[in-house]
Amino acid sequence: MAIKRIFSGIQPTGDLHLGNYYGAVQNWVGLQNGDSETIYCVVDYHAITGGIEPEQLPQRSLQLAGDLIACGIDPERSILFVQSHVPEHTELAWVFNAFAAYGDLSRMTQFKDKSGRTKHVNSGLFTYPVLQAADILLYLADGVPVGEDQAQHLELTRGIARRFNQIAGVEFFPETQILLTEGKRIMSLADPTRKMGKSYGEKHYVGIMEPPKRVAKKIKSAVTDAGGESRDALSPGVANLLGLLRLAGKDVEADDFEAQALSGDLMYGYLKVAVADATVELLEPIQARRAALSDDDIRAILADGAARARDIAGSVMAEVRSLIGVGAGRI
Ligand code: TYM
To answer: Using one digit for the tens of pLDDT, what is the confidence trace for 245-273?
Structure first.
């Protein structure tokens, strides 16, 4: 079935990196050319589950929105807004708390991972995927472009929608489809056995806005051979670098390097230079567009985006209230 409306979100925590770009944002940009309506959101209410930083959070949300625009999110073709500017997100999340199963939430691997690394495990970390389901379903979105790490949260979203529909006795929320890309799981440069992420530290990721010299330096110090790999399989580090080269549009070069790797002739240094050059080439126009954007331009885009998002969110939420029997004017 054709997808009518696409929704996706990103947290304003840390720098936008190549994992975000290849796993999600590049796909968000491409999807603007299709027939579906596209809605993209900077999810600041999600970010507070990782810590409360009232001084930095607004600036981070603004920065990230600017970075997304520089990557190609076009406010003429997409709605781009900040989650907390549309209060219905948290309202629907509360409603969904009455539909999500405790057992399902306790099986979420991201919760287990994050709660294992935190001293004070706030319950927002636990109910995080319920808010994510609300983000998506508040717009009745049926397509969600994300990286593979979000697959479990999307399964939960489908479960909540099904249960809601069953109890309400109408097919109100759509079945949401996950939209993955070739870059659905980009690995860390410093430890290619885990995914590239902002939370592991500087050397694990390449930031989209990092200066070319730093990008090259990080890629050149990427781990290629952890030792112990068999000769006829690619090591995780080499596989990741080859993936990055292909994603930067250099398939022919990547085929060549892959053949060398499999025959044991690969000089890692050459592969790294090729990946660094291709990545810098990809990032240059993005960084140039970013430099031309002022904070006021971004604020205006976000204000317009929030107004458009509120139109949809307001009417969906009014129907939800009516379906579950809450809200002013009903008594
Ligand atoms: P977040 O902010 O961690 O990441 C944003 C997007 O980047 C993808 N991603 C990756 N893809 C490939 N390889 C990687 N190493 C990599 N690292 C990150 C993520 O899969 C994601 O698509 N819970 C979400 C934010 C969210 C959301 C939503 C997403 C909140 N509400 C509704 C979709 C729909 C998150 O923390 O993404």
So the answer is: 999 999 999 999 999 999 999 999 999 99
Over the stretch 291-331, which tens digit does the pLDDT of each residue have?
Answer: 999 999 999 999 999 999 999 999 999 999 999 999 998 88
Q: Is the CB of 49 under 6 A from ligand 1?
A: no
Give the position, in ligand 1's atom list, of the atom nearest the Cα of 184.
Answer: 12
Is 198 annotated in the active site? Answer: yes
Q: Domain 198-290: state its class.
A: mainly alpha
| Centroid of ligand 1 to alpha carbon of 91 (angstroms) | 22
User: Is the CB of 147 within 6 Å of ligand 1?
Assistant: yes
Q: For the whole model, what pTM was predicted?
A: 0.97
150 Cα nearest atom in ligand 1:
20
- What is the distance of C-alpha 240 from the center of its chain? 19
Q: Where are the domains of the chain?
A: 5-185+294-324, 198-290
Residues of the chain with pLDDT below 50 are none
CATH architecture assignment, domain 5-185+294-324: 3-Layer(aba) Sandwich (3.40)
DSSP 8-class letter at 70 = H
Helices (H), the chain: 18-20, 26-31, 44-47, 57-71, 88-97, 102-106, 109-116, 123-137, 151-168, 212-220, 236-247, 251-262, 268-291, 295-324
